[in-house]
Design a protein that fits this description.
Blueprint lengths: L5 E5 L4 H12 L3 E6 L9 E4 L5 H15 L4 E4 L14 H29 L2 E6 L3 H4 L5 H21 L4 E8 L5 H4 L3 H9 L9 H11 L11 E4 L8
């Protein structure tokens, strides 16, 4: 039986973030989500936050701490894409994606670590992507931001590992979401051909790995990159 913890999931109002929050709730944890708009699943506390703004992250953590106590598990999931070929990509197209996906994770982890250091316990889980290691044409910005999370987690592990704090990366492949559902059938079939499992993952399959990483059972795993990609990124 896992100890009930206070969990914060960034970008928990849709997609994988919503599934992660749902999974933690089902196990009896105290769950808060950040969202710029929309709400987390029923039973969670939704706080407004923009991960590009340190002040708004601080306010979100303060609100969660007042309601549920110090955040013990943080899942940095908020992200964005601005896909296009590199030759057409502007500086802003690149830096805005880095600022949300990578710098945003840094801001969230930095604020979360304060309470974790005091408690001498913490679980930091960063949601990356198979393209962070595999690369993807048209996603130079997104791929670089998701790759950067690996260096972030491993450096945090070296800094905080002796204090009962772990930092890990989960790298999902193609997931069944509204976005993949909108792809033409032929394109979906094409993608599935490149995946040894022959199918997309469900968001719940990603969420279950994250919930396990946050559990008491995973206390000796840190600085790891765990792919949930049906074998798509093997060897990367």
């Amino acid at each position: 039986m896992t100890t009930p913890r206070t969990i914060l999931v960034t970008g928990g109002n849709r997609g994988i973030g919503f599934a992660i929050a749902t999974e933690f709730l089902a196990l009896g944890h105290r769950v808060a989500v950040t969202a710029r708009s929309g709400e987390g699943p029923a039973g969670s506390l939704t706080v407004r936050a923009d991960v590009t703004d340190a002040g708004s992250i601080d306010a979100a953590f303060t609100a969660v701490e007042a309601e549920y106590g110090p955040v013990e598990v943080v899942v940095a999931n908020a992200g964005m894409t601005r896909d296009m070929l590199m030759m057409r990509m502007t500086d802003d197209d690149f830096t805005s994606v880095i600022d949300t996906n990578l710098s945003g994770a840094f801001r969230v982890v930095k604020r979360a670590s304060k309470g974790m250091l005091k408690a001498r316990f913490g679980r930091i889980i960063l949601v990356s992507s198979v393209v962070g290691l595999l690369g993807s044409a048209g996603q130079v910005n997104y791929s670089a931001s998701k790759s950067g999370l690996v260096g972030l987690a491993r450096s945090v592990t070296r800094e905080l590992g002796a204090r009962g704090i772990t930092a890990n990366v989960v790298a999902p492949g193609f997931i069944e979401t509204d976005m993949t559902a909108e792809l033409p059938e032929a394109q979906q079939a094409d993608y599935k051909k490149s995946i040894p499992a022959g199918r997309f993952a469900t968001a719940a399959e990603v969420a279950k790995v994250i919930v396990w990483l946050a559990s008491d059972d995973a206390g000796y795993i840190s600085g790891a990159v765990i792919p949930v990609d049906g074998g798509l990124g093997m060897g990367h």
